[in-house]
Amino acid sequence: MEYVVRVISFSEARKHLKSVLDTVNDDANATIVTRRDADDAVVMSLDYYNSLMETVYLLRSPANAAHLAESIAQYKAGKTVTRELIDTAEGSDKSDGSSDDNEHTNGDVENA
Fold first, then answer.
1. Which stretches does the entry tag as region Disordered (predicted)?
2. 3-class SS at 42?
3. In the CATH scheme, what architecture does the domain 1-44 have?
4. pLDDT score recorded for residue 91
5. Residues of the chain with pLDDT under 50
C-alpha cells in the first residue's frame, strides 16, 4: 500500500468533514489540516493511530529496535527465507509453536 499525504485547509476540512473522516478510515492515510493563524493538525483513523502507538512502544526498547534494523538489512540484502504457513485447523494446534515433525532432538525414536 502506498502512503499518500493529503493536505487540506481548515475551511475545506470543516465543509467536508464527513468525507475527510471517511477517506482517512478507508485508505489508512493521514490528512494534514492547515490553519492560517495556528499550528497545523493531522487527521488519521483510530486504527492507524493505534498502529503508530504500538510501533513507538516497541521501538522504545533498544533490543527491539536493533532486531528490526537487522531484519530490514537482511531483507534488503535478499537474505530471506520463504516458508509455508501451517493451517492449525488441519494440523497440530500446539500453543508453543512446535510441530510433531521435529519432536525429538537427541536422535532417539520413540515407539508408539
1. 84-112
2. strand
3. 3-Layer(aba) Sandwich (3.40)
4. 55
5. 101-112
Domains of the chain by residue range:
1-44, 45-78
Give the whole-angstrom CA distance, residue 58 versus residue 42.
22
CB count, 10 Å around CB of 58? 12
Note the helical H segments in the chain: 10-15, 17-27, 46-59, 62-76
Instruction: Check residue 2 and give its pLDDT.
Output: 65
CB-based contact 48:58 (threshold 8 Å): no
For residues 52 and 24, is the Cβ–Cβ distance under 8 A? no
Q: What is the pLDDT of residue 25?
A: 93
The CA distance from 48 to 109, in Å, is: 50
Confidence (pLDDT) at 108: 44
